[in-house]
């Protein structure tokens, strides 16, 4: 299905929903009556499949006790690899290159500890100033283990407008003193997609290793990490992939790096056939499993079995297509209905450059978000003045997009936001 025209009516939204070939997946999710949930790029909703796989793991604990590590439908000892194989289909990698382990921040620390090898003048790590702060903090702390003055060893990519980068902005930072690059696949505020394939080629031509934070791109855009020759990537699984709050994260390491000693080792870094030999020196796995550390958090891993089964059943290609249609439709309605309310649209209008959300800015953004919540709409506020709107392909509809725009127009027309303070909540 393609949006071939624009028609600013509710009837047209209903027509689009009727012709949506993913509409049956909506029934698989727990949707709250009277609520339109447009915050799936922060935390995806619970699906019935994810609930079932969590309950199944709990039952295996009940039935098998410690033997659950090797018995039952999903033996725990191999669960991280099993989930990794499902994730590999989504990120375009070989199954042995992807593992479900750790968290976004823990996995980034592991990758820097493993692949940051400063030598001679090549001591800098490139990172962008618009990146999610956890990446900045991890880079800074890792550099602090090597140097007293860390700022001398960070190369920031600067944005010309505070929302986007040009390809040239990024390549210009790839100077001869750079040892490692860490970039997002999609910028978490504006939703701009970076050209990971081209940037990887540019970095490798200069002898620089490069890795990507896929937190806002995994599950919202298509990837081919293996074929793009990306060195490593890391991401959370609780946003577009609906793995649940605190879900175990994902990690990709290209097979060309297998055998590289993990910077942060633990007993789950072991070759599984040797792990319980309890040797005093690590015999590391010869695949991505080597970059695990401790025992996996099984209850935070289990929902991913069902969530990813559902996701792969729909297929990333169809999900990406509908995601683009939903956000394009929002932008069309925004232009038609909301052009006179001092909003600014600060996300790419080109579908090929935009991830899975729309980003609006407004001087009263914090209280506009509160007014939306009071009207049953769940958006996402991002400091200092941003509103992220994320209609999700698997469970949101075109009619919901239409309704949110009408609610937003009413809020602005009637100045309903003025009853709220223009400041963020503790968790925004």
From TrEMBL:
Cofactor names: pyridoxal 5'-phosphate
Reactions that this protein is recorded to catalyse: L-kynurenine + H2O = anthranilate + L-alanine + H(+); 3-hydroxy-L-kynurenine + H2O = 3-hydroxyanthranilate + L-alanine + H(+)
One Pfam family of this chain: KYNU_C
Keyword set includes Hydrolase: yes
Known EC number: 3.7.1.3
Swiss-Prot/TrEMBL keywords: Hydrolase, Pyridine nucleotide biosynthesis, Pyridoxal phosphate
InterPro entries per the UniProt record, alphabetical: Kynureninase, PyrdxlP-dep_Trfase, PyrdxlP-dep_Trfase_major, PyrdxlP-dep_Trfase_small
Residues recorded with modification N6-(pyridoxal phosphate)lysine: 239
Keyword Hydrolase appears in the UniProt entry: yes
Pathway: Cofactor biosynthesis; NAD(+) biosynthesis; quinolinate from L-kynurenine: step 2/3; Amino-acid degradation; L-kynurenine degradation; L-alanine and anthranilate from L-kynurenine: step 1/1
Domain of life of the organism encoding this protein: Bacteria
SUPFAM superfamilies: PLP-dependent transferases
NCBIfam families: kynureninase
Recorded family membership: Belongs to the kynureninase family.
HAMAP family: Kynureninase
Summary of the function given for this chain in its UniProt record: Catalyzes the cleavage of L-kynurenine (L-Kyn) and L-3-hydroxykynurenine (L-3OHKyn) into anthranilic acid (AA) and 3-hydroxyanthranilic acid (3-OHAA), respectively.
Protein's recorded name: Kynureninase
The species this protein was found in: Lysinibacillus irui
Lineage: Bacteria, Bacillati, Bacillota, Bacilli, Bacillales
């Amino acid at each position: 299905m393609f949006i071939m025209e624009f028609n600013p009516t509710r009837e047209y939204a209903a027509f689009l929903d009727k012709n949506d070939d993913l509409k049956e997946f909506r029934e698989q999710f727990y949707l709250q009556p009277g609520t339109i949930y447009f915050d799936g790029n922060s935390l995806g909703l619970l699906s019935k499949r994810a609930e079932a796989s969590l309950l199944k793991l709990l039952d295996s604990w009940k039935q098998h006790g410690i033997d659950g590590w090797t018995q039952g439908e999903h033996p725990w000892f191999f669960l991280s690899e099993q989930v990794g194989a499902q994730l590999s289909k989504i990120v375009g990698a070989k199954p042995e290159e992807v593992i479900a382990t750790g968290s976004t921040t823990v996995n980034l620390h592991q990758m820097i500890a493993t692949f940051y090898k400063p030598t001679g003048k090549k001591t800098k790590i490139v990172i962008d100033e618009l990146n999610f702060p956890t990446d900045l903090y991890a880079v800074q702390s890792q550099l602090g283990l090597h140097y007293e003055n860390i700022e001398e060893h960070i190369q920031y990519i600067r944005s010309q407008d505070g929302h986007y980068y040009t390809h040239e902005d990024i390549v210009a930072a790839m100077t001869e003193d750079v040892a490692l690059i860490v970039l997002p696949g999609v910028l978490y505020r504006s939703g701009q997609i970076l050209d990971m394939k081209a940037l990887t080629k540019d970095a490798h031509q200069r002898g620089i290793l490069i890795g990507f934070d896929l937190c806002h791109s995994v599950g919202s855009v298509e990837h081919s990490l293996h074929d793009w020759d990306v060195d490593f990537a890391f991401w959370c699984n609780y946003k577009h992939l609906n793995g649940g709050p605190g879900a175990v994260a994902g990690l990709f390491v290209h097979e060309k790096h297998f055998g590289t000693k993990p910077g942060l080792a633990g007993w789950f870094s072991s070759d599984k056939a040797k792990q319980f030999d309890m040797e005093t020196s690590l015999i590391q796995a010869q695949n991505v499993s080597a970059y695990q550390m401790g025992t996996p958090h099984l209850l935070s891993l289990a929902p991913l079995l069902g969530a990813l089964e559902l996701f792969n059943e729909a297929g990333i290609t169809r999900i990406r297509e509908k995601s683009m249609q939903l956000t394009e439709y929002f932008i069309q309605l925004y232009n038609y209905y909301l052009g006179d309310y001092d909003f600014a649209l600060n996300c790419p209008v080109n579908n090929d450059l935009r991830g899975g959300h729309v980003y609006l800015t407004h001087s009263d953004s914090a209280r506009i978000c509160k007014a939306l919540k009071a009207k049953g709409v769940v958006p996402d506020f991002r400091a200092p003045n941003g509103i992220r709107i994320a209609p999700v392909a698997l469970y949101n509809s075109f009619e919901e997009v239409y309704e949110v725009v009408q609610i937003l127009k009413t809020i602005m027309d009637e100045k309903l936001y003025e009853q709220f303070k223009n400041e963020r909540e503790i968790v925004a």
